[in-house]
Design brief:
single chain; alpha+beta; Ribosomal Protein S5, domain 2; Alpha-Beta Plaits; 2 domains; 13 strands; binds alpha-D-galactopyranose
Amino acid sequence: MITQADIIGICEQKFRKPSVQVAAPGRANIIGEHTDYNDGYVLPFAIDKRVYFAAAPNGQDHFSIYSTNLNKELTLYSSQVWDKGFARFFSSVLQIFKKYNYAVSGLDIVFGGDLPIGGGMSSSSAVTCGFIALLNDQFDLSLSKTDMVNLAVEAEHGIGVEGGNMDQYSIVNGVKGKAILLDCLKGTSNLIDIALGDKMFCLFNSNVTHNLSDTEYNTRSRTCKVAMAKIKNHSQEIMSFRDVTADHLQYLNSIEAKRVSHILSENLRVHDAVKAFANNDLLRVGRLLNQSHESLRDQYEVSCPELDFLQASLLGSEFVDGARMMGGGFGGCVIALLESAKLKDVALSLEAVYKERFDLELDVYPIKPENGLVVSSV
Ligand code: GLA
């Protein structure tokens, strides 16, 4: 497993002694899926799988960037636009910095880590946020956390994913032991205590990799925008999805109505889950996860056979309180709430049936809320 110390060592060997190091975590989301870009609520947290960076100024006008995970190096000029591979994240950030006149110059950068790429734990946002934090530190830009989140969201839109702000917000603002109840309309959040006792959250990575911009993700986002425009057309008092009720579904076609039904019910589930955590009612949290999965599968239609199989198989175990697909969908992970002492048994039998059914490996990651982005000098 690659560590921050490894990344620093590689930077020294390959380029020069780094002056800054950054650790950018991935994120998990307990509940509130596809609600972030629909003015809704989410309940994510940062996890202890990270992308590490080490960097130093190179006195040039270009960025030399080496990815340890891909064993690939490239040279990037601010004026160049890349739309492929890992370079596009760096390139998009540089375009946004140029737009806002943030002055930056060349760096030698090494990055890599143990956050699976394309596994639905937001490796792309970890790279984007990590690079922004690194530039902020090296060029004394005095960006606030909110600035960094907004710049990262804009940079990712530049890559072609019309996503919300859940990933970037939780990566930048994660707090150990707490989940973040984020109001995506207002951009405000509350920290929620997650007391799991003898239970735990665990991610089951289907190893079906996805590329959000290649999937139906943007189609979902656009359908919701069209639905909102239709609703506003009929009811001028509606300002956002926050004001929408089941009565408004009559103005929509059947696909739009399904998508909006998911948004309405998922937002209620987020609040129910927060109440259930406050009451220590983990069985209720589990039931909400299952309902969320059904809604994502049947109303929002962003699941896939592998995720449905994993979720259904997990529910077959008496040690699992609940499970659902997590993130954008069409691959990635299932998140489950289960008895910690039974994780090994549950994982072993699931790995076997999953391999037999899909000829795919299953990766299992126990997770708990961790601190967000850390930047420090070397
Ligand atoms: C992806 C996006 C997030 C969010 C989720 C679905 O992870 O990056 O902004 O929309 O999908 O909840």
